[in-house]
Write a structure and sequence with these properties.
Layout: H1 7-28, H2 33-55, E1 60-63, E2 77-85, H3 87-91, E3 98-105, E4 108-116, E5 121-124, E6 139-143, H4 149-158, E7 161-165, H5 168-176, E8 182-185, E9 189-190, H6 191-203, E10 207-209, E11 224-225, E12 228-231, H7 236-243
Parallel strand pairs: 1-2, 6-7, 6-8
Antiparallel strand pairs: 2-3, 3-4, 4-5, 8-12, 9-11, 10-12
InterPro entries: CysQ/Inositol_MonoPase, Inositol_monophosphatase-like
Keywords: Hydrolase, Magnesium, Metal-binding
Binding site for Mg(2+): 64, 82, 85, 193
C-alpha cells in the first residue's frame, strides 16, 4: 500500500494482511503449538513493524514483540500493535485470536483496526457497523482460563451470562458483532492488548474506560494497564454501580 493513505485505511490493510500471513503459516506448516506460536508472533511482527516504519516513519511505535524504544514517549502519534493477540488461541488453531493495529494521538486511542482472521472479519474505526441491540439477559465476555473476580461479581449482580473467550481483541469485538454485551477485565493487560480494540469500540459508539470510569491513556513509560471496561452506553451506570459493591 502506497500513496496518500489515511491512518485508518493503513491500519485496516496491515491488520488484514498480517492476518492472512498468520493463516498461511497456521495452515501450511506442521508445527507444534509452541513452534506455531513463536513463528506467528515473529512473522506478523516483522511485517507490521517494517510496514509502519516505511509508511509512518516519523511516528512512534510500540509492539508487544519488539524491544521498546523510549523515543516513542516524545511522539504525539504512536502506533501500538499486537501482532497476535491471543497467541495461545492461535497456536491451538482456535478462532478467538486477533491482530491489533492501533494509533494513539496524545495518549488517546484514536484510530485502529482489529482483524479476526479466522472469521474473515476486519473491524475498523473509519467504517463502523451497526451494533446489535442487547438481549434481555446480558452477556459478559470473560477470560477462558481466569475470569476476573470483579467481572464474575458484576455478572452475578446484573444477572448476566458469562461467555468465555480468548483474546482481548476478540472479546471487545464480540460486543460489536452482537456476541456479548460487556467486557470487563481487571486482571492486568498491556497497552497493545487494548489500544486498537479501544479505538474501534469508541468509533462504534461504545463506552471505553478504566473500571473506575476514568479514560484509558496510552503511550506511557509503563505500558501496563490494570483494567478496562467496554460496553454499550446504557450499561455503563449499572456496571459501575455493581462495581462499587464489589
Amino acid at each position: 500500500m502506497t500513496g496518500d493513505v489515511s491512518d485508518a485505511a493503513l491500519a485496516a490493510h496491515l491488520a488484514e494482511v498480517a492476518g492472512a500471513l498468520l493463516l498461511t503459516v497456521r495452515d501450511s506448516a506442521a508445527l507444534t503449538e509452541q513452534a506455531l506460536a513463536k513463528a506467528g508472533d515473529a512473522i506478523a511482527n516483522r511485517f507490521l513493524v517494517e510496514a509502519l516504519r516505511a509508511q509512518r516513519g516519523a511516528d512512534g511505535l510500540l509492539s508487544e514483540e519488539e524491544k521498546d524504544c523510549p523515543i516513542r514517549l516524545d511522539r504525539s502519534r504512536v502506533w501500538i500493535v499486537d501482532p497476535v493477540d491471543g497467541t495461545r488461541e492461535y497456536a491451538e488453531r482456535r478462532a478467538d485470536w486477533a491482530v491489533h493495529v492501533g494509533l494513539a494521538i496524545d495518549g488517546v486511542p484514536t484510530t485502529g483496526a482489529v482483524a479476526l482472521p479466522a472469521a474473515g472479519v476486519v473491524l475498523r474505526s473509519d467504517a463502523p457497523v451497526p451494533v446489535p441491540p442487547a438481549p434481555e439477559r446480558l452477556r459478559m465476555v470473560v477470560s477462558r482460563s481466569r475470569p476476573a473476580r470483579e467481572a464474575v461479581a458484576v455478572a452475578e449482580a446484573l444477572g448476566a451470562e458469562l461467555v468465555p473467550m480468548g483474546s482481548a481483541g476478540a472479546k471487545a469485538m464480540s460486543i460489536i458483532l452482537g456476541q456479548s454485551d460487556i467486557y470487563l477485565h481487571s486482571g492486568g493487560q498491556y497497552e497493545w492488548d487494548s489500544c486498537a480494540p479501544a479505538a474501534v469500540a469508541r468509533a462504534h459508539g461504545l463506552h471505553v474506560s478504566r473500571i473506575d470510569g476514568t479514560p484509558l491513556v496510552y503511550n506511557c513509560a509503563d505500558t501496563y494497564m490494570p483494567d478496562l471496561l467496554i460496553c454499550r452506553q446504557e450499561h455503563v451506570a449499572p456496571v459501575l454501580a455493581a462495581l462499587s459493591n464489589v
